[in-house]
Structures are given as structure tokens and as C-alpha cells.
Amino acid sequence: MGKNILKRIDLIFKEEPDSKNVLKKTLSKSNDELINELIASGLKGRGGAGFPTGLKWKLTAESKSTEKYVICNADEGEPGTFKDREILTQVPYKVLTGMAVCGRIIGARKGFIYLRGEYKYLLKELNAEIKKFHAICDELGLKFRVEVFMGFGAYICGEESALFESMEGKRGEPRNKPPYPSDFGYLGKPTVINNVETLAHTFTIFQHGTDKFRELGVKDSHGSKLFSISGDTPTPGIYELELGMTVEDFVNDFGDGDTKAVQVGGASGFCVPRKKFRETRIGYQGKLTGISLPTGGSMMLFNSSRSMYNLLSNYLEFFTEESCGQCTPCRVGTQQLIEGIRAVKRGEKPASYLDKLLALTETMKATAKCGLGQSVANSFQSIVENFREEMIY
Amino acid sequence: MDALQEKIKEVVAHHGRERHNLLPVLQEVVEQERYLSDYAMTLIAEEMGISAADVYGTATFYSFMDTVPRGKYLIRVCKTITCYMKGKNQILMALEEALKIKLGETTPDKKFTLMETNCLGWCHKAPAMLINDDVHAELTVEKVHSLIKEYKERP
Amino acid sequence: MEFSIEVNNRKIQARKGDTILETLTQNGIKIPRLCSVKSLSPTGACRICVVEVEGMKNLVASCSYPVSEGMVIHTHSPRVLKARKVLVELLLSNHPDDCLYCERNGNCELQDLSYELNVRERRITGVKSKLKLDLSGPCIVRDSSKCILCGRCVRVCDEIQSVSTFEFINRGSKTRIGTSMNRDLNFSNCIGCGQCILTCPTKALHEQSSLDRLQTELYNNKQQKVIQLDPAIMASIGEEFGVKPGKEIEGKLVASLRKIGFNYVFSTSFAADMVLMECAAELKQRMETKENLPLISSFCPAWVKYAEQFYPELLPHLSKVKSPALMLGSITKSYFANTIGVKQADILSVVATPCLARKFESQRIEMTRNGISDVDIVLTTRELAHLIRIYGIDLQNIEPLLPDLPFRTSSSSGKLYANAGGFTEGVLRTLYYQTTGKEIPTTKIGELRSISGIKEYEQKIGKEQVKVVVSNGLTNINSLAKAIREGKLDAHFVEIVACQGGCVNGGGQPIGLSVKDKKMHAKSIYDIDDTEIMKAAHKNALLKDVYDKFSEVVGKKNVDILLYTRYTKRDVLR
After folding, report:
1. pLDDT digit string (tens) for C249-299?
2. How far apart are the C-alpha atoms of B112 and B115, rounded to whole Å?
3. Contact C179 B61 (CB under 8 A)
4. How far is CA A23 from the centre of its chain?
């Protein structure tokens, strides 16, 4: 365990009575009441963009269609993230309950869990849980069914529209937006797609009410959040913490005493150098979100023995392989970035070439079709700007 | 009708001919056959009424859709940042030594294939790898050798 | 619903449901683009068409973003221009640097863009694509190293032609455009229509060129060199030389080709008249016996290959008559060879055509006799233009000459088949005469001259109400073919051409033609028909003459093999 500077929260993994209780509670309320509760809680998507969950459900509920879907995004692929797996292992019923409530509100009878191929070992247990859950639904007269859809090794499918394409049997290439999922999701039908953790939080909100959730965190960043902590730390693991802490508090709690940098939000997130630990907060406010595409809460610590060049090069290799390859800035950009930093390191290009690459990432950010291509700039800029010498020598 | 034709007819009938069933169909064939042969993809295309190019294009998008033959035990070592920091290369070397093959190769007895993969989500217990669907984390060189020994003894 | 938006500080009207790009184009604001083409669904892949929309963090791809009321757009702000330039630089960063050696030098959209956006230095460098050149296809060559992955070929092949030869394969920086199983093109289901070449912005797709071989053959004095000109060439080749389409140009081409070294220049239209005669007779006979109706046209080699691959059960419906070009090829190496006393093997038979699939058709086993092909070399309109340039001929000022006898003149029906529906008009004219002994009352059939993908018409001939259907652009064929297969199509004759609008828009035509150009080309063919006195194949006196002597010159037993062909089911990677 860490040094316990930051308050540990125990909501998500807290054992609760089974789903029946929450489902009964929600059945006694109207759809509007439930949506208002969710909006009042201030819950925002724990998967990336941080879109208000209540609003998402509301928009999809208002969309006119006889066929709608609820999808749980369990394509947890962001490097340094592993909390969704733990939720699905320990408290899957919370996620299933969230899906069923959502289904009732928006008018969907079918839900899917898009589970990444790398987590296939969860399938058996998960299906057993789903079976139990279906029995509860039947008992309460809820017509709702959940099915697991297996991914097959593609990080980009965590992007919601790529996930729909994948479920439709196609290449997982992100779609043009608009239209948004609330109007045009899986099979072109209105769809709510939520991250695993988001759905688990809805359980807490429906079980304990809005206040219990809202009293945690800071303004605009309400509630708790699961953090996946790894790298150079004596205490790697999953921790539920309040939003709004500084990176400094975080490092004091989890660091090994020699932390040089913290990567917040995985390869597509930001690298925070030691000198900025104090000024940087984790939450939805400000520049750093602590959550980014496609799954949030990744905190990777690096001590002074680590080469930031190797770090960046590892990320870029990841992106060249995991980009869907559809749009120019992402497909070619990632490739030329990695070639570029290699050339500078080998002395084939002057150090000033790094500035051209930085300018290139600006264009990638402004023009890429989806969040993946746009977010390559995050780690590239924060590493190159803060650790320029390490890129050259 | 040959055995594969029969199998694919069966798999497609089970999942349904609509396009949105393509991934489950491909996954099941990969699982049973250990890879998607050109012939299998052609049959699937025919059975589902989509072009073979489309099936091939879709399959090659997904890292786990192997389109070349793989061994009975497919090892995928995570190469993403934390595993890389925590000694993924030593693990890979140990595997190469234990299996007498290089990365990307399959043993002559078709029992093992050694591959790398991106983040497996076991960063807190790095380094990690998958053998087929099972995960093995907090790997050490010793652990790798005993694991491989154990798998070699399996049928 | 209409509303106003602001673009570059100016108010313009926009329609709900349109994309930003459509709105801008309607208002005369030009936005550079690569992956987006009007007739294909937008993918937003190249990102070149990005614009700045106030209130939005990132730039948006105008091709795929809908306009909305009150939008404030900047199409050429410094941020936008910088982004577009970087995107082009990225595409150039892994593109081979050999514009001077490239077939599309001067006619390349990537080159144009880098010029327009003022790309002047190589700021981004990196991996160059070094990919294999696929020379295996009879019609199309793929040079994947020049591919910028705009996906236009993928969409044209799927959305317009419904063949789906190409697909994106792999992922990330390894993404490519490939065929089934990433095999070479000759294993694929490619029908060689060449619409992908017309849409390709670079040289990633181009034709299998026959120019080198032709130039060598032209210096072989042991053979008689014969070339035939397809009527659709006359409509379009003028674009390459600044000459207006029309009758004039045929004479100029004849003169040029003689100068280049051809001994004889024939008109494919002559054989088209012959094909119409045979086809009308075939239709008449099938209507009498009621067998294998509807009769389906077979002069489009891309359609024939499509049928052999996808609808083998329809093959008995296909007309057994050869296509005009191959018909002329076979009578050149038989009837004509015998007339001038030259051996079959001592004739070089060249076809100049707008059709790329002829390259494949000429290599079909059915088109050889005694191991000798009826057509040795097929040149596209583009190659023909190139040939004329190589020889430095001034097409504008050359004195026109008539094509050679005996395959010199044709009725205007023999030219009409360049437009989708034209073949059917020709068949009806001659069928009417063959059935009733009278000329058809109205020659110009407006229903068959419209630009829709499926056209239908009924003509009373004798006691029979003859029903015809014309289909162009292969996506339209699937429902039609299914109806025929199930015996549900109430028609006597079906004309099918692969390319939208017909041969005049064939895959061998000049690249980069506008919709306006294409309309003008189609019109030029109709204009010839409107002014021509000899409107029907059966009126062609020269053809009558050839028919009279034909079996005597070629030998009675050879007639069938010279005029007719057969089709077989084709197994490909579908």
C-alpha cells in the first residue's frame, strides 16, 4: 500500500447487495427523475472525452427509434490502464445493472459489452454473471438482455464509432461525426455507449443517491475515479481516489522517491515533468484531464533511470501500429514522427528538426479524424518540450 | 463438400449470415483452425455474401486475426511501456532460448508461436504475456522456463 | 430548409443536409480535396479539405461535416492553409520522388496540390514507400508506392461497379490498398473496366501500356500494319490536342496514323454495323423460338467478364456475336487478309479504343485462331494520344484522310454504341427493318438517351411489343440480373455496359474530364446520328458488299468462328 496521503475511497469495489435492490429502486421512479438524478450527480464519462453521462442518456432517450442499444465499452487498451478488467472481475453486476437501467430509460432491450480480445479469459465468468442477471431482470419483468461481443486486438476500437464499425463486422475505422451515437450508433440506431467504470458509478448513484457521489471531488470534477498505477512505484495497482489532487500529492504517495515524470492518461495523455508536479491537477478542470482516450485513469511513474527518448519511441511505435491507418495526419504523421526522433538521435538530423516535428504534431492535433490521431501530440509535445536534451544526446 | 466447407457452413449458420456477424465468425474459425487460411476466408465470403477482398481487409485489421498458420500455443509478449521498462526483452530472450525460435517464428512441431503484442493491461504486474487466452504476469526468466516446460508437457 | 452561414466574412445561403464542402462549391468557393469525389460517399480520410469553424477546437473536414445554421467558417485562414500544406507534405514524405519519370507528370492531383499550396521544401522526411509493382493484370498496373490511400478506387469499384476488387488491408502505418488475400491482380475479380484509373489521383493505378511493343512492331516491314479506330475516341481525343470532337477528327486521326506507319486505318464502326445486323437477327430468332430471352448484349468485355464471374447462369442469354473491335479484328485477319493476299500471321492488328477491358478481351482464347490473336495490340485513347505526341504530329493542322476500304464507312448506328443505350437504338432500327421490311418511324429515342443507370423502352415491331432495358454502371445490374435469373424480367433485349454512360466514359479515356466535358462527348455522338443520312446498319452499302462475298472469301465453314464467340464460367477470388 502507498503512503496514504491521498484519501482512499471505497465505492466501486464495495460489495453491495445484488442488483435487484437497485433495479427495484429505479423501477419505482420515472425516467425523467432518473435522468435528473444522474445529471445532478455531475457524473462525467470515465472513458475519455468526459461527456456528462446524464446528458448522454437524455439525448438518446429523446432520439426516436424503435430499436436502440446500450453498449459497455470494455475495450480497455490505453497503455497503463487496467481498472476496467478489475471492475468486470469483482463487481460485474454493477455494470450490468447500470446497463439495464440505461436500457429502460432510453428504450433499449439489448445491451452489449465490447470486451477486448486480450481479456478473453474473463468471458466465462462474465457470461455466468450475465445469466444470473438475466434471471433477475426476468423476475422484475425487465425485458433486457446483455451479450458480450469480443474484440480482437485493436486499440482503436475503444473509440466509440470505431467500436460500432467493428461490431458491424467491418474494419474498426472511426466514423465521421456528426452524426453522434445518440442518433446513429450501432447498426445506425440510437446508442448509449459508456465506459465500464462510468456504468459502475451509475450503480452507486442509483443505490446511494446523488449526494454521496457529489460530495467527492472538486468543482466540475465530481466523484471518485479509479486510477491504474504502474511504472516506478513500490505500490502499483488500482486505487479509487478523489478527483482534483495534484500530481505532487500523488507522487509523494506513490513515488519511489526519485520520480522524474508522470505520464497521466496513458500514451495518448500527457507527460508531466518534476518541475510541474505541484501546479498540475488531475480532474476535468484545467489542461490535464487525467482521463483520455480511450480509457482513463492511467498513471505511470518514471524515475531518473529512465530514458525519455525510449519512452517516446515506445509510444510512437504503439501509435504507428494502432492507428487505424485511415486519415493522413495519423497514418503518415506517426510514422514520420518516429523516423524523425530516430534521425535526430542518430545525429542524421539537426536538433532543430524537433521543432518541425512539434509543428507537425500541431497539425495532427488540428486535423486528425479521431481522438487517437489528435492525442499523439499530447505525449509528443510534453516529452519533447520538457526533455529536449534527452531526445538529442 | 470438404471438412472446412462444412465447418464454415456450420459456423455461419450458427452466428447468422448478416454482415455484423462477421467478427464472431472469423474469431471462431481462428480459434478452431488456429488461423484464417485464404481458402477459409474465401468460403466465409461466399457463405456470407460479401466480397473476399472485404473479408480479407477486415481480418487484416485486427491483430489477433492470424492469416498465417500459428502453433498450438500462441505466445504474445507485451511490449508496451511498463513491460518494456520491467524487462520484456529478457523475457523474450528467455522464451527464444526455451523454444529455440526467434520472435515471429513457430516451432517445427507447430506447438508454439512467439509474438509480441501491445498493452495487455497488466502494467502493475509487468512484464506480462498471453499464452492463447491465458495471462501470465510478473514474469521472470525462471518463471518463463518453468512455464514453457509445463506447456511442452501438455498434449 | 435554407438558412444563412458566414464564410470568410460574407453571408451565403446553405441548405440543411448539405455538407460544408457542397455548400462552398455551390457558392463558387474552391476547396482543395483528394479523397472526396462528388459521386462517391465521403470518408474524410485525406483531411485536405479542412476548414476552420468558429467555436470548434479542431479543424473540420468539409467533405463530411454538415452545415448548420449560423456557422462561421474560414476557408483560407493561416491555420487552415498551414494545415493543408503540412498534410500534402506528409503525403509527399513517403511518396517516391520521381515526377519526371512518372506517367502522370503534369496530370497528377498530388503534384497540382503541392504546387497550389506552395510546397517548396522538404520539411518532413521519413520512410519512403517501396512497394512491389504489380504487372500481372492484363489491363491495369498497380504501383502501390505511389498510392496515397485516398480510397477512391475502393469506392468506385464497390459503389459504382459493384465488383469490390480493392479493399483497405492491414492497419496503421502498414495500411495498404490490396486485392483479395493481397494477391496479384490477375488472381482477383478485376474486370478491367478501368474506372479506378480514371479516379486515381496519382499513378498508383494506370494501364498496362502497349506502346513500347507497338513501336517495335511498327518497324517490322514483313507485316501489314492495321489499326482500327473506335467511334468514342473521336469524342474525346480532341481534349488532348485542343481539337473539337466531331466528324473532322476521324480524318485527322487517319492521316496521323498513316504518317506514323500504319498501312491501313479502319473504322470500328463498320464492324459495329455488322454486329448490329447479327444481333438483330439473333434477337428476331430468339423471339420466334422464345428461347433464352431476354437476349443480353455482349459487346462490353468488362460486363462479359463480370457475368462469367458473378452470373454464370446468365451466360446462355448473352449474344454470341463478337464485339465490334474483335469482329473487325477477325475479319481483318481473314476476309481482308485473303482479299489482299496476305497470310493471317503477317498482319498486325491494332485496336484504338476507349475501353480498357479490350486489353483483356483481345487475349481471350476465343479470340485466337490457329494460335494467332485476331487483335494483337490494344491502345487506349490515352496511349493513342501519346503515340501521336511521340511522332510529333500536329493534329490541329494535319489534312484529313478517309479510312481505308473495305472497312471505311458505317451508319450512324455503328457509332451510337459509344453511348449507353445507343447499341439498343441500332438494334431496334435494324430489327424493325428485318421484321417488317420497312424503316423504323422514329429513329431518335429520348428514353434511351437519358443519363439514368437503368433505361426502359417499348417499341412496336410488327405484331410484337418489343421491350428493351439498358443498364450502365454495374451496381445497377445486380437487381436486373436477379430478375432475369428468376425469369421475372419482362423484356426481350437487355443492353449492359459496365461504364456509366457507356464506352464514351470508358476506362481508357483521358483522365480528369469534367462532368461538362463528358456531357459534350456524349452529345457529339448523338449529333452525328442526328445529321447522318445513313442511320441504320442494314443501309450500309459497303457492309452489304462484304456480306455478299464473305463466305466465298473466308470459306463457308469459317463463318461462325469468325463472327461468333462463347463464354465460360470463371473462377476467381470473388
Report:
1. 999 999 999 999 999 999 999 999 999 999 999 999 999 999 999 999 999
2. 10
3. no
4. 26
Asked whether the beta carbons of residue A339 and residue C173 sit closer than 8 angstroms, the reply is no
C178 in B contact zone (CB under 8 Å): yes
Q: What is the DSSP string of A23-62?
A: HHHHHTS-HHHHHHHHHHHT-B-SSSS--BHHHHHHHHHH
- Given a cut of 80, whether residue C129 has pLDDT beyond it is no
Q: What is the pTM assigned to this prediction?
A: 0.95
CB contact under 8 A, C126 and A340: yes
Residue C538 cell numbers, joined: 442494314
According to DSSP, residue A1 is labeled: -
**DSSP state for residue A315 in the 8-state scheme:** H
Tell me the C-alpha distance between C317 and C464, whole Å: 20
Nearest to B81 among A77, A300, A322 (CB): A300
Question: What ipTM was reported for this prediction?
Answer: 0.97
Interface test with A, best of B75, B123, B130 (most A CBs within 10 A): B123
3-state secondary structure of A240: strand
Domains of chain C in start order, with CATH, are 2-91 (3.10.20.740), 129-208 (3.30.70.20), 221-563 (3.40.50.1780)
Which cell numbers in the block locate residue A278? 505541484
Cα–Cα distance, A129 to C206 (Å, whole number): 57
H-helix segments, chain B: 3-15, 22-33, 38-48, 52-59, 81-85, 88-99, 141-153
The position carrying cell 452507486 is A204
Contact A327 C47 (CB under 8 A): yes
Distance from C-alpha of C235 to C-alpha of A42, rounded to nearest angstrom: 67
What is the separation, in whole angstroms, between the first and last Cα of chain C? 44
Whole-number Å distance between alpha carbons of A142 and A155 = 34
In DSSP terms, which residues pair with C54 in a beta bridge?
A: none
**Contact between residue A84 and residue A47 where contact means Cβ atoms under 8 Å apart:** no
How high does pLDDT run on average in chain B?
96
Distance (Å, rounded) from C-alpha C336 to C-alpha C341? Answer: 8
In sequence order, the 6+-apart residues with CB closer than 8 A to the CB of A264 are: A247, A270, A271, A272, A280, A282, A288, A290, A298, A299
